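Review box. Two proteins, two foldings.
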Amino acid sequence: MARAKFQTLTEQMFYTLLCLQEECYGMDILDRIPNMTGGRVKIGSGTLYTLLEQFLEAEMIKETKVEGRRRSYILTPKGREMLFNEYERIKAQMADFEAIFIEGEEK
């Protein structure tokens, strides 16, 4: 059975949406993701623009400006909800890890 689209987010998806908490251009996102992750996460332009199209179709982001080929985007309420849900999912994973590996070793 195929995974439901956007049920969980890849790191590239997560950080793209996180960048769009404030309005920015695609090229800005390409710079911001490595900067905010200390270079741990990178995204190629092809991947980014594919994600932006998918997020637009899913109404998770909206286009705010078009200046020639430059387009800017921002999160929609649906995108914020998806980002928050992913944050909560990651926190639950961390709690599970801590309960098993951190607290479990203290016993």
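Next protein.
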Amino acid sequence: MKKYKYLILGAGPSGLAVAHRLLQSGLSTSDILVIEKNAETGGLCKSQIVDGAPLDTGGGHFLDVKYERVLEFLFRFMPKEEWNKFDRISKIRIHGQEIDHPLEANLWQLPKDTQVEYLESIAKAGCVSDEPIPDSFSDWIVWKLGNKIAAEYMLPYNKKIWSMDLDKLGVYWLHKLPNVSFREVLESCLYGKPQGQLPAHGTFLYPKNHGYGELWRLMGSALGDSLLLSTEVINIDLSTGLVNGQWQAETIINTIPWAHWENYCSLPENITTAISKLKNISIDVEYNSNTLTSDAHWIYEPDENKSYHRQLLRSNFATGARGHWTESNSSRTSGSKSETHFHNEYAYPVNTKDKPEAVAVILEWALENRIIGLGRWGKWEHMNSDIAVLEALQLADSLTSSEASI
């Protein structure tokens, strides 16, 4: 039996980042062990060569430039000169056109009579007239964006991606949507250019000669013997921190789905109940050799007659690539999978109404048992890879500073 200060479950962006930051803070390789059930690192950020060029098998992932600390950290593994920088071009396929995203900032690209219809709808939106904020997802979308954007884009798009009753979703996470100002929307139509707040990934980085997964592969390789691949967790002794009867941890950092923990140990009834409330959706990625005629990096598709909700035009960001790939809720692709198909069982956490309370209960119990939840699945939070890395760095720093003060 080997003893470790920190045993990290999962070698996705969060697990890799927290491991490396702990090592950079002065811990030795004998203090840390990362366990990954798959044969490669990266989690949803894996890549493969398909049709002669990289394809990101877990869907479209890009490195945002927002956090300098994250970039400085990641450039240690893949230097800055190995990345291309892009100004985001994302579009929405609507009214037989490709309109720049977000729709409300780019209505000026539609015919004048259609612009008027949208403007009239936004003018009547609840947020414009200071109506109370609804607690129903569907009502909130109408309140925020008006009936027309809700009916023609946001509601059908969300029905596709979540494939569930939308009113089971909470509204607590919708602050991520850009603010909608009727004045700014009107100005954009009058002046023929976007106005107001733009969404995340306004500028992003993508590797020049690889898929996004190459970064995480390099980070895994750099861990050496502190990383065990193709190693599945079988059992965990909560009282001793012993994993698989082989490795004993002072602290376990969990980045894998909590649903798996029911297979590892006996859980209290309230934790089992809380875990049962955590929902996720699966995403299928399929490659199509057809190179689309568009300058977009990705296109959102609200048409419910199409199985996919997004197309990634890899020829517009991956060097030497052609073709594109699609992302679809797995329930919508049943029986129609192409040969070049990748299934991601755990793709997006679902922000159901009772999720925050359930996660709080789980994380409190975990801390009592020297377990820390981290990342998309440890916190059951839909976070991009840059946020996952940032939170991993902050956790590592808090852990090492706590040890130093003892």
